[in-house]
Amino acid sequence: MRRFIKVFLIRGGGLLAVCVLLAVLLSGCSAGTPTPAQVTGAPTPTAAQTAGSATQQAQEAAATTPERATQPPTTAPQATPTLPWGTSKQDVHATLAEGQTAELTEGKEVYRLTLEKIVDGAVSTNTLQRAKEGNRYLLFSIIVENAGTRSHLVSTANFGLRTVSGFDYEPVFAPVGFPEGDPLSQEIGPGGKARGIVVFELPVDEQPLFLKFDPNPFTPAELYFNAPNALELVQSGTAGQSAAAAPEGTPGDQAGKSWGTSKNDRHVPLAVGQSGAIADGKQVYRITITALVDGASSSNMFVRPKEGHKFWLVQVLFENAGTSSTTLLLTQWALRTQDGFDYKPEIIVTGFAEGEGLHGEVGPGGKKQGIVVFQIPQDAQPLFLKFDPNPFTSAELYFDAS
């Protein structure tokens, strides 16, 4: 028992000595770096005093910070959900005005556009570059900056214009002779920029609703320069928008025809003023016949029917009542005559007084008017006119002759 107590005291004393040594060392280290209170002889603050001081410092810092630091950083205008176009969260909206700059971000790619100049009624010095009677040129001089990481080819094909009445227009192809500059068509490297013009031919009484820049048709990001009163026009109903939200016409399975028997097909009479609509998923297309010409003629001496044939022309108003842009092609149309022969549209349809060929991109809520021309035998008569927007789906629109 005595031996056990002896061992316990020896080991306990050794442990106590080690603790004392550590305490001395730690005290020495603290003494080497005196606190401000120790230097001035002031008493050491308590924990409550320390917390109060920290709170006071934070309040003082907030009070001395410039007011602009408390505001969110300035960013490019974001999509306006109340507008029927450009509702993707990646879209950007800005005002259609000279000097306006806006940025569009698409992943790591950033496009910065500045509307340098807007000329309503622009005139070309080239005598061959003239707007048709009743039309005028609307010109935009634009600076495009590439603030992204890769080179990009930017051209007039990236732009589109919609008017207040709802019609979509494509830029004039290769405009020449304008003193404001040359057409925008340039590969721009990272950090570079380019200047060019984009020209549209519009009726004299049409006014722009928005100018759209779409650098990549396979992604949703688009930049819109909206007329200053665009939102007011939409809310008042002045800006033309397609009202069709469902198919129109007789369903195919009730038509009693040997064609167009799908339940998604629609049949309407082949007559001026007739309208029909088909749905392809969330896309709804409405078409109205505005003119029919049996034996149409072109002012272009090179556009003539073959001997024993004639031009059969239909003028239509197309409305995109769907949720995304669509591209119109002449190949979407076909004509069958009463003798059972099918015909494809003519590709070159210039010089017709009824207008230009129906083709090009039409955005959601947009409209486009144009003509489709067929070359058929002199004694042939139409049986039906067919519009097929998507060959991979069953929805087709038929205009049936009586």
How many helix segments? 4
Oligomer state of the chains in this structure: single chain
Side-by-side strand order of the widest sheet: 12-13-23-22-18-19
On the 0 to 100 scale, the average pLDDT is 81
User: Poorly predicted ranges (pLDDT <50, ≥5 residues)?
Assistant: 1-10, 16-52, 58-76
The level of helicity is 10-25%
Shape: globular
Rounded Rg:
36 Å
- Major sheet attributes: 6 strands, mixed
Percentage of β-strand residues: 35-45%
Termini, distance in Å? 126 Å
The secondary-structure element order is: HHHEEEEEEEEEEEHEEEEEEEEEEEE
What's the layout of helices and strands?
Blueprint: H1 2-32, H2 36-40, H3 47-64, E1 92-95, E2 101-106, E3 109-122, E4 135-146, E5 152-155, E6 159-163, E7 168-169, E8 185-188, E9 193-203, E10 208-213, E11 223-226, H4 230-236, E12 250-251, E13 266-269, E14 275-280, E15 283-296, E16 309-320, E17 326-328, E18 333-337, E19 342-343, E20 360-362, E21 367-377, E22 382-387, E23 397-400
Parallel strand pairs: 1-11, 13-23
Antiparallel strand pairs: 2-3, 3-4, 4-9, 5-8, 6-7, 6-10, 10-11, 12-13, 14-15, 15-16, 16-21, 17-20, 18-19, 18-22, 22-23
Please describe the structure with a list of short key phrases separated by commas or semicolons.
single chain; 402 residues; alpha+beta; 6-stranded mixed sheet; 5-stranded mixed sheet; 4 helices; 23 strands
Any overview of this molecule?
This protein has 402 residues and is of the alpha+beta class. It has four helices and 23 strands. It has a six-stranded mixed β-sheet, with no helix packed on it.
